[in-house]
Amino acid sequence: MNSARSYTACGKARLAGNVDNLAKRRNAVHMPCATRPSGDCHPITGVVGRLDKVTNIACDARLASERVPNSEPVRIDQRYPRGQVTPAMSVRNALVLGTLIMVALLIGCRGKGVKPSPLPEFEPRQSVRVAWYSAAGASGGYIFSPVYVGNRACAAANSGRLSCFNSRNGQRIWSSSAGVGFSGGIGVVENLILAGSAKGQVFAFDTYGTVLWRSQLTSEILSAPAGSGPTIIVRTGDHKIFGLDARDGRELWQHRAPEQPLTLRSNPGMAVVDDNAVISGWPGGRLAKVGLNDGSLLWQISVATPRGDNKLERITDIAGTPLVDGDRVYAVTYQGRVGCFDTEKGTRIWGRDASSAGSLSGDARNVYYTESDGVVVALDKSTGASVWRQEKLLHRRVTSPLVVGDWVIVGDYQGYVHVMSRDDGSFVGRVATDGSDIVATPIRMDERVLLLTQSGGLYAIAIGG
Fold it and tell me: Domain residues for 77?
């Protein structure tokens, strides 16, 4: 559907007071945000989706193909870093909220302030080049993180295909199919490569591509499975963490977070601590530590307290992976704060205002994250004091940062890889990929950087040399 026509139709319906008529329609109506690449809407609002007991509003959505039972919350897919709004509210609240959001959409999302910044101009100081490229398969709108295991670079596709490539030259070693589409992954635990499906299935492959087991859980899997030793940790879309036996996928325990009225639909990661616990962020700004052996809650703290005049302003989710560094853990919330905490008891060490739906990266001196508007930030790890801010990638839908040596690396919505100095955030190099979004955080592969585009391009990037 044409974006401008979608806005016009949506705006007229809202402004004419036809909300009741819209609420009676049971089929999805796709009304996307400003046409890419010229627009970057509010990270939550912009689409009137499936209207079935509740009205869902999300930005840049890929509508689910199947009907959603009346008894379940309606969900609309959304790409990182904008998450998705998953409402659990009355019809009245939903319609009032929808009206307010649409007004904000019509006023703000078409405005000049949301146009992506142009590519920054600078004098290159480092060679940045594509060392090799291979086709791993398209994402279908989901977010897949590549992994580096042994001498292999592995990646998943929405089609259900898992492929591993030679990390030196990108040649395909093997490719295997699960028989169903993937929606989250991939993770590596010991010698297992793990991925999840939209129907809540977890698949465990060995390093040769053989499916060893599959396990059925309660909801779609968007996050990469994690774990340590005999326990696999899987997070599902209904805010549960499952502990599975690494040998056969048998469920050992489950832990569920408290419900929130409105949350981001994202792919939050989990950080394993001392091989006996996992730290994960939750909706509402909560950070929790759970025991690997039995799923017991060891501590739970508030990184940020929801605040605001409406449900959208009070969304304060931790949507990325916490950064564990020795006896400290760092976490950042959307529309809230970034903070440093003691891993043993969860005691706060420092905190400051921030807004991010991504993950953090760090080195010996600083912690790095990307604000929800695309600003890349470096903070002192010990005090939280600002070290630098790089604002020239504003609204370019920038990934979470990766630190490699002296460089901080991010990708953007046009498939560019930006390399900055970790000392001051200045640009030192840049390289283009296939032109599609880079959404997942790049990862380190020895002295190279490995990343996956939404079109399925798996790239090894060499810096210097």
Answer: 3-114
